Known about the structure:
It is built from eight helices and twelve strands. The chain has two domains: 7-144, Jelly Rolls, CATH 2.60.120.10; 148-227, Winged helix-like DNA-binding domain superfamily/Winged helix DNA-binding domain (Arc Repressor Mutant, subunit A). The radius of gyration is 19 Å and the shape is globular. It has helices at residues 7-10, 20-29, 113-119, 123-147, 150-165, 181-188, 192-205, 220-227, and strands at residues 31-35, 40-42, 50-56, 58-64, 70-77, 81-82, 96-99, 103-109, 166-169, 172-175, 208-211, 214-217. The structure holds a DNA duplex (13 and 13 nucleotides). Residues 148-221 form the HTH crp-type domain. One of its GO terms (molecular function) is DNA binding. Residues 14-97 form the Cyclic nucleotide-binding domain.
Amino acid sequence: MKKLDESLLSDLPPFSQLDGSQIREILDLAKTKRFEENVTVFEEGAEAERFYLLLDGTVRALHVTPEGEHVTALHVPAGQLFGFAAAFGRSTYPATVETAAEAVTLWWPMSLWPQFVARYPGFATESYRTIGQRLNEMQTRVVELSVLHVEQRVARTLLRLIQQSGRQEDGGIVIDFPITRRDLSDMTGTTLHTVSRLLSGWEKKGVVQSERKHITVCKPERLHALSEGRPV
DNA sequence: CCATTAAAAGCCA
DNA sequence: TGGCTTTTAATGG
Length: 232
């Protein structure tokens, strides 16, 4: 296999405190894998044999109910680890992970996780920081689901997405991966129809702009107002 | 206010 | 063409 460049990792938080030789060690243990858009990386409950670093693309963690309903828990932007079940003391993955866009990953056998944590300074603290952030996000989302109105939930979701995966463009901030009304309804606990109507309404007001699988937030301020139930 | 159902139109492989 | 995405309208909780 081709040698991986050390600069792949040196700027990412879990590895930023490591010197060149340490990053070299880590890269030499890694394997790369590319995934097409909308494919499953691993399933909830499966043996957690690998942990991944997302080099490029976006993945989402989700749960599928027995009735086949999808509930998206969170999105993971490029540069973050995912699937590190060993960090929670689990031997199986806690959620299904799918690619939201074509993705490039590095992966390591889960058996290496304890060694990484023990050997590499900063790796553990940064990984647990990531866990904390995701836990926080999931908690606030649970609260939001129960107390906020649909319009506020969808607005907040869009704001989170542009904050985590947004790319500045001339017309506004565009969500950097393909996203459908259906995806948004899975994230907000509503229906694709309601999401469609909301987006259409916002588009008329110039707050957002959307094509199929592609949403741009033109006026984040006004979206923020909407997320607090304030009229715009 | 929001979900459900139904129907139709548009986009893309 | 067939399947997926989106919009729109009607209905009902």
